[in-house]
Amino acid sequence: MTKINTKPNVFLITLDAFSYRIFKEHLDRFPYIKHLEEESVVFENAFSIGPNTFFSFPGIIGGIYPYHFGVGIPENVTTLYGYLKKFGYDTALINESNALLTPLFGYGNGLDFQNHFLEYSHCESDRKNQTKFLKTKTSKQTDQRNVSLKDRILKIYNLFDNKLIKDAGRIFACSLVYAQMRINGTTESYPERLHLYNQFHHGILDYIENIALEPNQPHFVWIHTIVNHLPYLPKDNASRFSVKEINKLNYYGISQFYTKKRSAKLKDLYIESLEKTEELLESVIHHIREKGLLENSIVIITADHGEEFLEDGYFGHTPVSSSDNLLNVPLMIYAPGILPSTKIDCPVSTIDIFPTIIDLIGIGENENNRGISLKDLIFATQDTQITKYRNRTFFSESWSIEGLTDRKPGYGREKKFFTVRTGEYKLKIIKERKSTNRTIENYELYRWTMRTPLSISDNIEIFEGLRNQLSAHLYEEGKYAQMVRNVQKTPVNTEKQKLINAAKKIKLKM
Protein backbone atom coordinates (compact mmCIF):
# COMPACT_ATOMS: atom_id res chain seq x y z
CA MET A 1 0.00 0.00 0.00
CA THR A 2 1.37 3.46 -0.92
CA LYS A 3 2.09 5.67 2.07
CA ILE A 4 0.17 8.95 1.91
CA ASN A 5 2.03 12.10 2.95
CA THR A 6 -0.05 14.00 5.52
CA LYS A 7 2.68 16.48 6.53
CA PRO A 8 2.85 19.70 4.50
CA ASN A 9 5.89 20.62 2.45
CA VAL A 10 7.77 23.63 3.82
CA PHE A 11 9.41 26.23 1.59
CA LEU A 12 11.53 28.77 3.48
CA ILE A 13 12.49 31.64 1.17
CA THR A 14 15.01 34.08 2.64
CA LEU A 15 15.68 37.35 0.84
CA ASP A 16 19.12 38.73 1.58
CA ALA A 17 19.12 42.48 2.37
CA PHE A 18 15.41 42.96 1.60
CA SER A 19 14.31 46.26 3.17
CA TYR A 20 10.72 45.97 4.38
CA ARG A 21 10.51 49.71 4.90
CA ILE A 22 11.61 50.60 1.37
CA PHE A 23 9.29 47.91 0.02
CA LYS A 24 6.30 49.39 1.87
CA GLU A 25 7.19 52.92 0.77
CA HIS A 26 6.95 51.76 -2.88
CA LEU A 27 4.23 49.15 -2.49
CA ASP A 28 2.51 49.95 -5.80
CA ARG A 29 5.64 48.83 -7.66
CA PHE A 30 5.18 45.31 -6.34
CA PRO A 31 1.70 44.14 -7.43
CA TYR A 32 2.41 40.42 -7.08
CA ILE A 33 3.74 40.62 -3.50
CA LYS A 34 0.88 42.97 -2.67
CA HIS A 35 -1.56 40.33 -3.94
CA LEU A 36 0.34 37.60 -2.08
CA GLU A 37 0.03 39.52 1.19
CA GLU A 38 -3.75 39.60 0.79
CA GLU A 39 -3.78 35.79 0.91
CA SER A 40 -1.14 35.32 3.63
CA VAL A 41 -0.39 35.77 7.30
CA VAL A 42 1.62 39.00 7.31
CA PHE A 43 3.61 40.11 10.37
CA GLU A 44 4.01 43.85 9.86
CA ASN A 45 6.42 44.32 12.75
CA ALA A 46 8.87 41.45 12.45
CA PHE A 47 12.40 42.14 13.68
CA SER A 48 15.66 40.36 12.94
CA ILE A 49 17.97 39.32 15.80
CA GLY A 50 20.94 40.77 13.89
CA PRO A 51 21.67 43.64 11.47
CA ASN A 52 23.44 41.48 8.89
CA THR A 53 23.81 37.87 7.72
CA PHE A 54 26.54 36.96 10.23
CA PHE A 55 24.22 37.48 13.18
CA SER A 56 20.70 36.89 11.87
CA PHE A 57 20.72 33.32 10.52
CA PRO A 58 21.59 31.51 13.78
CA GLY A 59 18.13 32.63 14.90
CA ILE A 60 16.25 31.67 11.73
CA ILE A 61 17.90 28.28 11.17
CA GLY A 62 19.08 27.32 14.67
CA GLY A 63 16.58 29.10 16.93
CA ILE A 64 19.45 30.59 18.97
CA TYR A 65 21.02 33.99 19.65
CA PRO A 66 24.62 34.29 18.36
CA TYR A 67 26.42 36.32 21.08
CA HIS A 68 27.57 33.36 23.19
CA PHE A 69 27.99 30.95 20.26
CA GLY A 70 29.60 33.04 17.51
CA VAL A 71 28.81 33.23 13.82
CA GLY A 72 27.11 30.23 12.22
CA ILE A 73 25.55 27.10 13.73
CA PRO A 74 27.41 25.21 16.51
CA GLU A 75 27.70 21.43 16.23
CA ASN A 76 25.47 20.64 19.22
CA VAL A 77 22.56 22.83 18.05
CA THR A 78 19.79 21.16 16.05
CA THR A 79 18.89 23.10 12.92
CA LEU A 80 15.39 23.55 11.55
CA TYR A 81 16.08 21.12 8.71
CA GLY A 82 17.83 18.71 11.06
CA TYR A 83 14.75 18.62 13.27
CA LEU A 84 12.38 18.14 10.32
CA LYS A 85 14.59 15.34 9.01
CA LYS A 86 13.87 13.39 12.21
CA PHE A 87 10.19 13.43 11.25
CA GLY A 88 10.69 12.06 7.77
CA TYR A 89 11.31 15.23 5.77
CA ASP A 90 13.57 15.27 2.74
CA THR A 91 15.69 18.43 3.15
CA ALA A 92 17.40 20.80 0.72
CA LEU A 93 19.17 24.16 0.51
CA ILE A 94 19.39 26.12 -2.74
CA ASN A 95 21.68 29.06 -1.99
CA GLU A 96 22.53 31.80 -4.46
CA SER A 97 26.24 31.76 -3.60
CA ASN A 98 26.13 33.33 -0.14
CA ALA A 99 29.36 31.92 1.31
CA LEU A 100 28.19 32.64 4.88
CA LEU A 101 25.48 29.98 4.53
CA THR A 102 27.82 27.13 3.64
CA PRO A 103 28.99 24.08 5.68
CA LEU A 104 32.07 26.02 6.80
CA PHE A 105 29.70 28.04 9.01
CA GLY A 106 27.63 25.04 10.08
CA TYR A 107 24.85 25.46 7.51
CA GLY A 108 23.84 22.59 5.27
CA ASN A 109 25.33 19.80 7.38
CA GLY A 110 23.08 16.75 7.22
CA LEU A 111 20.96 18.00 4.33
CA ASP A 112 19.83 15.52 1.70
CA PHE A 113 20.65 18.04 -1.05
CA GLN A 114 22.43 21.37 -1.26
CA ASN A 115 23.66 23.57 -4.08
CA HIS A 116 25.48 26.82 -3.31
CA PHE A 117 26.38 27.89 -6.88
CA LEU A 118 29.77 29.14 -5.68
CA GLU A 119 31.31 28.29 -9.03
CA TYR A 120 29.19 31.12 -10.49
CA SER A 121 29.60 33.49 -7.54
CA HIS A 122 29.73 37.21 -8.19
CA CYS A 123 32.62 37.28 -5.68
CA GLU A 124 35.83 36.04 -7.28
CA SER A 125 37.42 34.98 -3.98
CA ASP A 126 34.38 32.81 -3.22
CA ARG A 127 34.85 31.04 -6.54
CA LYS A 128 38.47 30.35 -5.72
CA ASN A 129 37.72 29.18 -2.17
CA GLN A 130 34.54 27.18 -2.80
CA THR A 131 36.18 23.92 -1.66
CA LYS A 132 37.05 25.57 1.65
CA PHE A 133 33.49 26.89 2.15
CA LEU A 134 31.97 23.49 1.48
CA LYS A 135 34.05 21.83 4.21
CA THR A 136 32.29 21.07 7.48
CA LYS A 137 35.15 22.06 9.78
CA THR A 138 36.94 25.36 10.30
CA SER A 139 39.61 26.67 12.62
CA LYS A 140 38.36 28.48 15.69
CA GLN A 141 40.94 31.16 15.06
CA THR A 142 40.38 34.22 12.93
CA ASP A 143 41.44 33.76 9.32
CA GLN A 144 43.36 36.99 8.87
CA ARG A 145 43.88 36.30 5.14
CA ASN A 146 40.27 37.32 4.62
CA VAL A 147 40.74 40.77 6.13
CA SER A 148 40.68 43.07 3.09
CA LEU A 149 43.20 45.79 2.28
CA LYS A 150 40.44 48.36 2.76
CA ASP A 151 39.70 47.08 6.29
CA ARG A 152 43.38 47.15 7.19
CA ILE A 153 43.69 50.77 6.05
CA LEU A 154 40.53 51.70 7.94
CA LYS A 155 41.83 50.03 11.10
CA ILE A 156 44.88 52.31 11.02
CA TYR A 157 42.83 55.47 10.49
CA ASN A 158 40.33 54.46 13.18
CA LEU A 159 43.10 54.62 15.77
CA PHE A 160 42.66 58.40 15.60
CA ASP A 161 39.80 60.03 17.55
CA ASN A 162 39.55 62.84 15.00
CA LYS A 163 36.45 62.36 12.80
CA LEU A 164 37.99 64.25 9.86
CA ILE A 165 40.98 61.89 9.83
CA LYS A 166 38.68 58.84 9.99
CA ASP A 167 36.55 60.17 7.12
CA ALA A 168 39.66 60.90 5.04
CA GLY A 169 40.87 57.35 5.68
CA ARG A 170 37.54 55.89 4.56
CA ILE A 171 37.54 57.90 1.34
CA PHE A 172 41.15 56.94 0.58
CA ALA A 173 40.63 53.21 1.26
CA CYS A 174 37.33 53.00 -0.65
CA SER A 175 38.66 54.94 -3.63
CA LEU A 176 41.49 52.41 -3.95
CA VAL A 177 39.02 49.51 -4.04
CA TYR A 178 36.80 51.32 -6.55
CA ALA A 179 39.75 52.10 -8.84
CA GLN A 180 40.94 48.50 -8.66
CA MET A 181 37.50 47.23 -9.68
CA ARG A 182 37.26 49.62 -12.63
CA ILE A 183 40.77 48.95 -13.91
CA ASN A 184 41.08 45.20 -13.44
CA GLY A 185 37.58 44.10 -14.35
CA THR A 186 35.55 42.02 -11.94
CA THR A 187 33.10 39.16 -11.56
CA GLU A 188 30.78 41.72 -9.93
CA SER A 189 29.78 42.99 -13.39
CA TYR A 190 26.17 42.83 -14.55
CA PRO A 191 26.60 39.98 -17.13
CA GLU A 192 28.34 37.74 -14.55
CA ARG A 193 25.80 38.61 -11.88
CA LEU A 194 22.90 37.81 -14.24
CA HIS A 195 24.52 34.50 -15.20
CA LEU A 196 24.68 33.47 -11.53
CA TYR A 197 21.02 34.39 -11.05
CA ASN A 198 19.90 32.40 -14.10
CA GLN A 199 21.76 29.30 -12.92
CA PHE A 200 20.24 29.70 -9.45
CA HIS A 201 16.72 30.27 -10.80
CA HIS A 202 16.87 27.20 -13.04
CA GLY A 203 18.22 25.20 -10.11
CA ILE A 204 15.16 26.06 -8.01
CA LEU A 205 12.69 25.12 -10.73
CA ASP A 206 14.52 21.86 -11.45
CA TYR A 207 14.39 20.91 -7.77
CA ILE A 208 10.65 21.62 -7.59
CA GLU A 209 10.25 19.30 -10.58
CA ASN A 210 11.97 16.56 -8.56
CA ILE A 211 9.68 17.15 -5.58
CA ALA A 212 6.64 16.70 -7.80
CA LEU A 213 7.94 13.22 -8.64
CA GLU A 214 7.83 12.27 -4.93
CA PRO A 215 4.30 13.23 -3.79
CA ASN A 216 4.36 10.86 -0.80
CA GLN A 217 7.51 12.37 0.74
CA PRO A 218 7.30 15.61 2.78
CA HIS A 219 9.93 18.14 1.72
CA PHE A 220 11.70 21.07 3.35
CA VAL A 221 13.32 23.43 0.85
CA TRP A 222 15.32 26.47 1.97
CA ILE A 223 15.82 28.95 -0.88
CA HIS A 224 18.16 31.89 -0.31
CA THR A 225 18.55 34.69 -2.86
CA ILE A 226 21.02 37.61 -2.92
CA VAL A 227 19.27 39.65 -5.62
CA ASN A 228 18.94 42.57 -3.18
CA HIS A 229 22.53 42.34 -1.97
CA LEU A 230 25.29 44.25 -3.72
CA PRO A 231 25.84 43.97 -6.63
CA TYR A 232 22.16 44.78 -7.14
CA LEU A 233 20.40 43.05 -10.02
CA PRO A 234 17.53 44.91 -11.75
CA LYS A 235 14.83 43.29 -13.87
CA ASP A 236 15.91 42.29 -17.39
CA ASN A 237 15.49 45.10 -19.94
CA ALA A 238 13.49 47.15 -17.42
CA SER A 239 16.16 49.29 -15.76
CA ARG A 240 16.42 53.03 -16.15
CA PHE A 241 20.19 52.50 -16.03
CA SER A 242 22.46 51.23 -18.79
CA VAL A 243 24.69 48.21 -18.14
CA LYS A 244 27.64 50.58 -17.85
CA GLU A 245 25.82 52.66 -15.23
CA ILE A 246 24.71 49.54 -13.32
CA ASN A 247 28.31 48.36 -13.10
CA LYS A 248 29.57 51.78 -12.04
CA LEU A 249 26.95 52.17 -9.31
CA ASN A 250 27.50 48.65 -8.00
CA TYR A 251 31.26 49.25 -7.86
CA TYR A 252 30.61 52.43 -5.86
CA GLY A 253 28.43 50.47 -3.46
CA ILE A 254 30.71 47.44 -3.06
CA SER A 255 33.76 49.64 -2.43
CA GLN A 256 31.71 51.88 -0.06
CA PHE A 257 32.95 54.83 -2.15
CA TYR A 258 29.64 56.62 -1.81
CA THR A 259 28.34 60.18 -1.59
CA LYS A 260 24.76 61.33 -0.97
CA LYS A 261 24.20 61.62 -4.72
CA ARG A 262 25.63 58.17 -5.47
CA SER A 263 23.68 56.69 -2.57
CA ALA A 264 20.42 58.10 -3.97
CA LYS A 265 21.11 56.48 -7.35
CA LEU A 266 22.09 53.21 -5.67
CA LYS A 267 18.77 53.28 -3.84
CA ASP A 268 16.95 53.59 -7.17
CA LEU A 269 18.91 50.61 -8.50
CA TYR A 270 18.14 48.73 -5.27
CA ILE A 271 14.39 49.29 -5.70
CA GLU A 272 14.70 47.82 -9.18
CA SER A 273 16.37 44.78 -7.59
CA LEU A 274 13.34 44.43 -5.29
CA GLU A 275 11.26 44.17 -8.47
CA LYS A 276 13.57 41.40 -9.65
CA THR A 277 12.99 39.59 -6.34
CA GLU A 278 9.25 39.90 -6.85
CA GLU A 279 9.70 38.31 -10.29
CA LEU A 280 11.61 35.42 -8.67
CA LEU A 281 8.95 34.88 -5.99
CA GLU A 282 6.19 34.85 -8.59
CA SER A 283 8.07 32.30 -10.70
CA VAL A 284 8.82 29.98 -7.76
CA ILE A 285 5.32 30.05 -6.27
CA HIS A 286 3.74 29.64 -9.71
CA HIS A 287 5.90 26.55 -10.26
CA ILE A 288 4.94 25.12 -6.86
CA ARG A 289 1.28 25.60 -7.75
CA GLU A 290 1.70 24.27 -11.30
CA LYS A 291 3.21 21.04 -9.96
CA GLY A 292 0.24 20.48 -7.65
CA LEU A 293 2.26 21.08 -4.46
CA LEU A 294 0.79 24.33 -3.16
CA GLU A 295 -2.34 22.85 -1.55
CA ASN A 296 -0.14 20.90 0.85
CA SER A 297 2.66 23.43 1.36
CA ILE A 298 3.60 26.20 3.77
CA VAL A 299 5.66 28.99 2.19
CA ILE A 300 7.53 31.29 4.57
CA ILE A 301 9.05 34.46 3.11
CA THR A 302 11.41 36.55 5.22
CA ALA A 303 14.77 38.36 5.18
CA ASP A 304 17.91 38.28 7.26
CA HIS A 305 18.13 42.10 7.36
CA GLY A 306 17.34 45.24 5.38
CA GLU A 307 19.47 47.84 3.61
CA GLU A 308 20.29 51.52 4.26
CA PHE A 309 21.05 54.44 1.99
CA LEU A 310 22.19 57.12 4.46
CA GLU A 311 18.66 57.59 5.89
CA ASP A 312 20.22 57.61 9.36
CA GLY A 313 23.80 58.27 8.29
CA TYR A 314 24.74 54.69 7.41
CA PHE A 315 25.10 52.84 4.12
CA GLY A 316 24.58 49.12 3.50
CA HIS A 317 24.03 46.93 6.56
CA THR A 318 26.69 47.78 9.09
CA PRO A 319 26.24 46.49 12.67
CA VAL A 320 27.02 49.87 14.23
CA SER A 321 23.75 51.16 12.77
CA SER A 322 21.36 48.48 14.04
CA SER A 323 18.52 50.78 12.99
CA ASP A 324 15.08 49.54 12.12
CA ASN A 325 15.92 50.10 8.47
CA LEU A 326 17.95 46.92 8.99
CA LEU A 327 16.08 45.13 11.76
CA ASN A 328 12.49 45.49 10.50
CA VAL A 329 12.17 42.64 7.97
CA PRO A 330 9.34 41.03 5.99
CA LEU A 331 7.73 37.92 7.45
CA MET A 332 4.90 36.33 5.53
CA ILE A 333 3.41 32.83 5.70
CA TYR A 334 1.53 31.80 2.57
CA ALA A 335 -0.43 28.59 3.01
CA PRO A 336 -3.81 28.75 1.20
CA GLY A 337 -6.19 26.21 2.63
CA ILE A 338 -4.05 25.74 5.76
CA LEU A 339 -3.78 29.20 7.33
CA PRO A 340 -6.11 32.23 7.32
CA SER A 341 -5.14 35.45 5.57
CA THR A 342 -4.51 38.14 8.18
CA LYS A 343 -2.28 41.08 9.03
CA ILE A 344 -0.70 41.11 12.49
CA ASP A 345 0.85 44.30 13.89
CA CYS A 346 2.02 42.71 17.15
CA PRO A 347 5.86 42.66 17.20
CA VAL A 348 7.53 39.29 16.56
CA SER A 349 11.08 38.08 15.95
CA THR A 350 12.82 36.04 13.28
CA ILE A 351 13.91 33.71 16.10
CA ASP A 352 10.23 32.68 16.25
CA ILE A 353 10.26 31.19 12.73
CA PHE A 354 11.73 27.80 13.72
CA PRO A 355 9.27 27.05 16.58
CA THR A 356 6.35 28.38 14.53
CA ILE A 357 7.04 26.04 11.61
CA ILE A 358 7.26 22.89 13.69
CA ASP A 359 4.18 23.91 15.71
CA LEU A 360 2.12 24.50 12.55
CA ILE A 361 3.16 21.07 11.29
CA GLY A 362 2.33 19.55 14.68
CA ILE A 363 5.60 17.78 15.45
CA GLY A 364 6.28 19.00 18.98
CA GLU A 365 8.84 21.43 20.34
CA ASN A 366 12.60 21.63 19.90
CA GLU A 367 14.45 22.36 23.14
CA ASN A 368 16.96 24.56 21.29
CA ASN A 369 14.45 27.25 20.48
CA ARG A 370 14.94 30.56 22.23
CA GLY A 371 11.95 32.03 20.43
CA ILE A 372 8.28 31.04 20.71
CA SER A 373 5.66 29.67 18.33
CA LEU A 374 3.38 32.26 16.73
CA LYS A 375 0.64 29.74 16.00
CA ASP A 376 -1.68 31.01 18.76
CA LEU A 377 -1.10 34.57 17.58
CA ILE A 378 -2.07 33.61 14.02
CA PHE A 379 -5.34 32.08 15.17
CA ALA A 380 -6.07 34.59 17.98
CA THR A 381 -9.59 36.02 17.88
CA GLN A 382 -9.49 38.26 20.97
CA ASP A 383 -7.08 40.86 22.37
CA THR A 384 -6.70 38.84 25.56
CA GLN A 385 -5.15 36.04 23.52
CA ILE A 386 -2.55 38.46 22.12
CA THR A 387 -1.46 39.94 25.47
CA LYS A 388 1.34 37.42 26.08
CA TYR A 389 2.83 38.32 22.72
CA ARG A 390 2.61 42.09 23.20
CA ASN A 391 4.46 41.94 26.52
CA ARG A 392 7.58 40.34 25.04
CA THR A 393 11.04 41.88 24.81
CA PHE A 394 13.10 41.65 21.60
CA PHE A 395 16.85 41.75 21.12
CA SER A 396 19.47 42.09 18.41
CA GLU A 397 23.14 41.20 18.85
CA SER A 398 26.21 41.95 16.76
CA TRP A 399 29.89 42.80 17.11
CA SER A 400 33.04 43.68 15.17
CA ILE A 401 34.18 40.80 12.94
CA GLU A 402 37.86 40.23 12.08
CA GLY A 403 37.77 38.57 8.68
CA LEU A 404 35.19 36.52 6.83
CA THR A 405 35.78 33.23 8.66
CA ASP A 406 35.95 34.73 12.15
CA ARG A 407 33.43 32.62 14.09
CA LYS A 408 34.43 33.57 17.64
CA PRO A 409 31.64 34.60 20.06
CA GLY A 410 30.70 38.21 20.72
CA TYR A 411 31.97 38.52 24.29
CA GLY A 412 35.52 39.80 24.55
CA ARG A 413 35.26 41.79 21.30
CA GLU A 414 36.41 45.37 20.97
CA LYS A 415 33.01 46.61 19.78
CA LYS A 416 29.59 45.15 20.50
CA PHE A 417 26.21 46.41 19.35
CA PHE A 418 22.87 45.56 20.92
CA THR A 419 19.26 46.64 20.73
CA VAL A 420 16.51 45.85 23.21
CA ARG A 421 12.87 46.60 22.46
CA THR A 422 9.81 46.47 24.73
CA GLY A 423 6.42 47.97 23.94
CA GLU A 424 6.98 51.13 21.93
CA TYR A 425 10.52 51.73 23.18
CA LYS A 426 13.89 50.66 21.80
CA LEU A 427 17.35 51.13 23.29
CA LYS A 428 20.52 50.82 21.22
CA ILE A 429 23.73 50.10 23.15
CA ILE A 430 27.28 50.30 21.79
CA LYS A 431 30.03 48.89 24.00
CA GLU A 432 33.60 49.70 22.98
CA ARG A 433 36.70 48.45 24.80
CA LYS A 434 39.37 51.15 24.86
CA SER A 435 41.84 49.26 27.02
CA THR A 436 42.03 46.23 29.30
CA ASN A 437 40.32 48.04 32.16
CA ARG A 438 38.28 50.63 30.28
CA THR A 439 35.08 50.16 28.29
CA ILE A 440 32.84 52.99 27.18
CA GLU A 441 29.13 52.66 26.44
CA ASN A 442 26.95 54.83 24.22
CA TYR A 443 23.16 54.75 24.23
CA GLU A 444 20.36 55.83 21.91
CA LEU A 445 16.74 55.69 23.06
CA TYR A 446 13.81 55.70 20.62
CA ARG A 447 10.08 55.46 20.43
CA TRP A 448 10.43 53.00 17.58
CA THR A 449 6.72 53.03 16.67
CA MET A 450 7.08 56.73 15.76
CA ARG A 451 10.73 56.53 14.59
CA THR A 452 11.63 59.35 16.98
CA PRO A 453 14.66 59.69 19.30
CA LEU A 454 14.04 60.32 23.01
CA SER A 455 16.03 62.06 25.70
CA ILE A 456 17.48 59.50 28.11
CA SER A 457 17.52 61.97 31.01
CA ASP A 458 13.80 62.63 30.54
CA ASN A 459 13.05 58.89 30.33
CA ILE A 460 15.49 57.48 32.86
CA GLU A 461 13.17 54.74 34.16
CA ILE A 462 12.48 53.44 30.66
CA PHE A 463 16.22 53.55 29.89
CA GLU A 464 17.20 51.68 33.06
CA GLY A 465 14.48 49.09 32.50
CA LEU A 466 15.62 48.33 28.95
CA ARG A 467 19.29 48.20 29.92
CA ASN A 468 18.52 45.79 32.76
CA GLN A 469 16.50 43.58 30.40
CA LEU A 470 19.47 43.31 28.07
CA SER A 471 21.74 42.34 30.98
CA ALA A 472 19.25 39.66 32.06
CA HIS A 473 18.98 38.40 28.48
CA LEU A 474 22.74 38.06 28.04
CA TYR A 475 23.02 36.28 31.39
CA GLU A 476 20.27 33.77 30.56
CA GLU A 477 21.56 33.12 27.05
CA GLY A 478 25.06 32.65 28.47
CA LYS A 479 23.76 29.95 30.83
CA TYR A 480 21.99 28.26 27.94
CA ALA A 481 25.11 28.36 25.73
CA GLN A 482 27.17 26.84 28.53
CA MET A 483 24.64 24.04 28.91
CA VAL A 484 24.85 23.29 25.18
CA ARG A 485 28.66 23.22 25.29
CA ASN A 486 28.60 20.81 28.21
CA VAL A 487 26.65 18.23 26.23
CA GLN A 488 29.20 15.50 25.50
CA LYS A 489 28.88 13.23 22.50
CA THR A 490 28.57 9.54 23.43
CA PRO A 491 31.64 7.62 22.18
CA VAL A 492 30.86 5.19 19.37
CA ASN A 493 32.80 2.39 21.08
CA THR A 494 33.90 3.05 24.67
CA GLU A 495 35.84 -0.23 24.94
CA LYS A 496 37.82 0.56 21.82
CA GLN A 497 38.59 4.02 23.15
CA LYS A 498 39.89 2.51 26.43
CA LEU A 499 42.30 0.30 24.46
CA ILE A 500 43.54 3.28 22.42
CA ASN A 501 44.12 5.32 25.59
CA ALA A 502 45.97 2.38 27.22
CA ALA A 503 48.20 2.02 24.15
CA LYS A 504 49.06 5.74 24.30
CA LYS A 505 50.10 5.41 27.96
CA ILE A 506 52.38 2.45 27.16
CA LYS A 507 54.09 4.43 24.38
CA LEU A 508 54.63 7.36 26.74
CA LYS A 509 56.28 5.07 29.35
CA MET A 510 58.61 3.59 26.72
TrEMBL record:
SUPFAM superfamilies: Alkaline phosphatase-like. Gene3D superfamilies: Alkaline Phosphatase, subunit A. GO terms for molecular function: arylsulfatase activity. Keywords: Hydrolase. It holds the Pfam family Sulfatase. InterPro entries: Alkaline_phosphatase_core_sf, Sulfatase, Sulfatase_N. Residues 8-363 form the Sulfatase N-terminal domain. The keyword Cytoplasm does not apply. Belongs to the sulfatase family. This is Sulfatase-like hydrolase/transferase. The lineage of its organism: Archaea, Methanobacteriati, Methanobacteriota, Stenosarchaea group, Methanomicrobia.
